[in-house]
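This section describes the prediction task in plain terms. A model, or a person checking by hand, is given the sequence of a single protein chain and must write out its three-dimensional structure as a string of tokens. No templates, partner chains or ligands are provided. The sample shown here is typical of the held-out split.
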Amino acid sequence: MAASPEEKYELITRRLQEVLGGDSIKAILAEGRTPKCYWGTAPTGRPHIGYFVALTKIADFLRAGVEVTVLLADVHAFLDNLKAPLELVAHRTKYYQNILLAVFASLGIPTSKLRFVEGSSYQLTKEYNLDNYRLCAIVTEHDAKKAGAEVVKQVESPLLSGLLYPGLQALDEQYLGCDFQFGGVDQRKIFTFAELYLPRLGYAKRAHLMNPMVPGLGGGKMSSSDPNSKIDFLDPPEAVRRKIKGAFCEEGNSAENGVLSFVEMVLIPISQLRLERLHGDTGTDSEEGQNATGDQRPFVLEGAPEGTVFSIFRKEEYGGSLHYQAYERLKRDFEEKKVHPKDLKTAVADCIVRLLEPIRKAFEDNEEWQKVEKLAYPDPNAKPEKKKKKEKVYHPPPPGKGKNAKQGLAAEVGAAAVSTGEDVVQPAVDRPST
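The expected answer:
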């Protein structure tokens, strides 16, 4: 049976932290039209596993019949102060596209249904730039700086490029033809900026959907620019286990706990997607899972009760393994110290290793991607290659030029003097000193 507009809306908005303008999406669904959305990412630092939150959510959009555009915001990457130099942006854009395709495949999301667009393909056009100038004529410095406060690199004396960033992201909604933009809750100020200023240019106000942000391994936001807060998509198993082992996970403390939050925001949603797929519940997306890579089992142990979405292995002497059908119960057990941090960390590390295995394999099997990776993120400690000294090649001077020419001239003059009996006056430089 076809899903009702209400069921599609529930699928589109489940597990989100906030929705702005949801009524406009409901209206589109009620009319029987296909909603269009875009999710964008600026190719700056190496993508980390926090991206799983947004990329997993895209499966829900496809199940609800939403047309999804993935924006590789290369111009934004350059404008974001101190992150990606212009000469690296093109390489990083290719790197990001390879990563995203590999992650989507590992999640069973059909990439044939996704439209990938590079920002520079339309952001450098005459029409877009004129709209940008129109926007600059009505936006105050205060509003531009405030809008980008959570996203753009903040420095004491901000560059003009960073102030342009929010305006361009707002214009993207118009030029990509979307009904709603999807992003992290850290984008909220840019979203409200777009809602305020796009209508002033005569364009429609869009809806905005926001996913929660996974805390870093040491607390705070997981960030591409902080290697200690994140796990990269290409990290090997030993690096994953080492980072999880050192992550903040105080017994009984669920606040700012990146390990516990990863279970809530990534592992359980992926388990639910896989369980639903096993039951044929993929909505309008009949292609989901067809070309999936890697182990597609949910993160549950063999023999777990029906409905389990996450399991923690534990030896029988310590009470046996634990099985959870919802995150709330896991959180409560952790706060009551029924779940030891070591057991939780081991379970989470095992799940992440499973998640990353097909992504790493895709990288190892793709030589072109490996070359792009080295160009996109060159080793900062690598010593520059010494330039070879050019070998000196002797080129004899043309006739009548150079030292030999002077010596030849002197010989000719001397010979002429002998033949005529005249005295020869020697040049001053050849006279012996007295």
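For orientation: The chain is about 45% helix and 10% strand.
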